[in-house]
Write a structure and sequence with these properties.
The chain is an alpha/beta fold and about 425 residues long. It is built from 16 helices and 18 strands. α3 packs parallel to α4, α9 packs parallel to α10 and α12 packs across α15. The radius of gyration is 22 Å and the shape is globular.
Length: about 425
């Protein structure tokens, strides 16, 4: 089967959850003998065409339909949003003649995939068009939604005139032949509206975390870290907290900066690309104000599935994901596979994921610092709880291995 995955941007040096999903599904499909290509814009990536692990990746220049369009705005939209036109993408898709066009974007890119699929046939059969909903669009808080629109506010949206001229009035995602939902909320929304809808959670490559590198705490590790006394006389082990997520208001890392101020024995490592530079500046400013800047560090973007990313998990003691809204929470799976105890906000698909494996995570009410603090103290005070969460998490991760999920997706393609 020839499968074209289409995504708004794809850069190994500046990744996010969607890119991880696309790449891992593509790799698993290729390992099963399918012919797979990735099609994307060249946002945040200067390489137009490359082959990685036998998978060809083609990138095209996006055109953001706003005026004026200074360089700084282009860079901001490359990171997040922009709804671009992508000249050359449709022509490249038609030229390759895939059996399946699997779109991982919305708006104009999704419309282009639909139009391309309608025009092309393979051996007399219509190309199957599938779209993945990577989540959160309907659940973005009002203030955050405003921040996403802020870069283009007050600019002329000339692209709308092109849309009308082209007759791009299709319904996305309903007009696609199949809808793949990463979040259960979206699955519940569309399963009664469309004949071909599936829930396919995010996954993890458990092989990356196998062997001697697993993080499960041993008695020797616990005894070696004797801790130090707090003002209340209680011995507390120094804890290294990690949050793997893009630096973005959705991920709510500000709560972790506030948590640092409450626990002088803790340090915080934020791993992930910066999609909202102004938010990173706010995090750094608040850390300086609270006097915790020396205990806060950023890794920047790390390549998905890279040894550097795995090493970040292995150096940590606790993983915390405090998102305001989250369709799933792929990095929670990685933390489980790495044998880390997990604390997560009880929100959306992330909350349901943790509820499905109650022994593998401690959850807290979203955007509630007192609830987060209480959850953190439970783990700090109990090595047994940390160990139990780590063991249960490694078992839970096995249910989400990419190889299993890929086989389910191929079956879904075949049933459309």
């Amino acid at each position: 089967m020839k499968i074209a995955h289409v995504v708004r941007r794809f850069s190994f040096d500046d990744w996010g959850g969607t890119e991880q999903v696309v790449w891992n599904l593509a790799r698993a499909q290729a390992m099963d003998g399918h012919d797979v290509r990735l099609f994307a814009t060249n946002a945040l990536c200067s390489t137009g065409r490359e082959t990685v692990e036998g998978i060809e990746i083609l990138r095209f220049r996006p055109i953001y339909p706003w005026w004026p369009m200074p360089k700084a705005l282009v860079e901001a939209l490359d990171r997040k949003g922009g709804n671009p036109f992508v000249p050359g993408l449709g022509r490249a898709l038609r030229s390759w003649s895939p059996d399946v066009i699997h779109c991982h974007a919305m708006a104009r890119i999704a419309e282009l995939c639909l139009r391309t699929g309608e025009r092309g046939t393979v051996d007399g059969q219509q190309v199957k068009c599938v779209i993945s909903l990577h989540g959160g669009g309907a659940n973005v808080p009002g203030e955050e939604a405003k921040s996403l629109k802020a870069p283009t506010r007050g600019r002329l949206p000339w692209g709308k005139m092109i849309d009308y001229a082209l007759g791009w009035t299709r319904h996305v995602p309903e007009d696609f032949g199949g809808i793949v939902c990463v979040g259960e909320d979206e699955y519940e929304k569309y399963k009664s509206r469309h004949p071909h809808v599936m829930y396919l959670p995010n996954g993890v490559d458990t092989r990356l975390f196998e062997g001697d590198g697993c993080h499960l705490e041993s008695d020797s590790r616990q005894s070696a870290a004797d801790g130090r006394a707090r003002a209340d006389g209680r011995q507390v082990k120094p804890m290294s907290i990690i949050c793997v997520a893009r630096i973005d208001r959705q991920k709510n890392q500000m709560m972790l900066v506030e948590l640092l101020a409450r626990h002088p024995e803790a340090s915080l490592r934020l791993v992930g690309p910066v999609t909202q530079p102004d938010y990173k500046a706010e995090l750094e400013s608040r850390a300086a104000e609270l006097g915790v800047a020396e205990r806060l560090s950023f890794s920047g973007a790390l390549k998905p599935d890279s040894p550097e990313l795995v090493a970040e998990y292995r150096r940590a003691d606790i993983f915390i994901l405090p998102s305001r809204h989250e369709p799933f929470g792929i990095t929670a799976l990685e933390a489980w596979a790495a044998g880390l105890p997990v604390i997560a906000s009880d929100v959306g698909g992330l909350g349901r994921l943790c509820a499905a494996h109650p022994g593998a995570a401690v959850t807290f009410a979203p955007d509630n610092i007192e609830a987060l603090d209480a959850a953190y103290l439970r783990l700090v005070r109990s090595p047994e709880l940390r160990q139990g969460l780590a063991v249960a998490g490694r078992e839970a991760a096995k249910d989400y291995d990419w190889r299993r999920l890929s086989q389910k997706l191929i079956g879904f393609y075949q049933g459309i």
